[in-house]
Amino acid sequence: MQKDSFDAKQKNILELATFYVGESLCGINILNIQEINKNVDITHVPQAPAYVVGVLNLRGRIVTVIDLGDKLELSPINISKENRNIIVDSQDEQIGLLVDSISDVLLARSDKIEPAPANIGGVKGKFFKGVFKTEDKLIGVLDIEEVLKEE
User: Fold this and answer.
1) pLDDT in tens, 74-113
2) Coil, helix or strand for 21?
3) Pairing mode of beta strands 93-99, 61-67
4) pTM
């Protein structure tokens, strides 16, 4: 019986990989992330939407890289040594989300994630499943499928 109680508690916990897009702190459920890498050897794709940085070769697989700052209608990501690509799966395709920098992995109780306001620090609320508050931070929990929808 005690094991069942422990399992129920664990199902209520999310691990959020957090990262910065400009000054905005965002998070993604770690189960949605395939990997995080620092490969910035990205090939430009002509006539792609403005938010598509290009493509990269990830161990023989072509991955489209999206500038998450541009997609969230913030400032485009400034390329630096701190940038990372967060590789996620969407509709059987790997997509890279280019972010400014990676932060921590945090544990969040799912019942502590509040509905996203319409506008989170200049970012449209539609891109978020909710917000998680820590003692000193507000983390927007991204809705990957909404972010990756074509407009």
Assistant:
1) 888 988 889 999 999 888 889 999 999 999 999 998 888 8
2) strand
3) parallel
4) 0.85
Q: List the domain boundaries for the chain.
A: 2-147
What is d(CA 16, CA 112) in angstroms, rounded to the nearest whole number? 13
Amino acid 72 reads: L
Cα separation, 43 vs 56, whole angstroms: 6
pLDDT per position as a tens digit, 22-31 = 888 999 999 9
Distance CA(66)–CA(44), nearest Å, equals 11
Fold for domain 2-147? Answer: OB fold (Dihydrolipoamide Acetyltransferase, E2P) (2.40.50)
Q: DSSP assignment, residue 29?
A: E
Q: Which residue has the tokens 């209608």?
A: 73
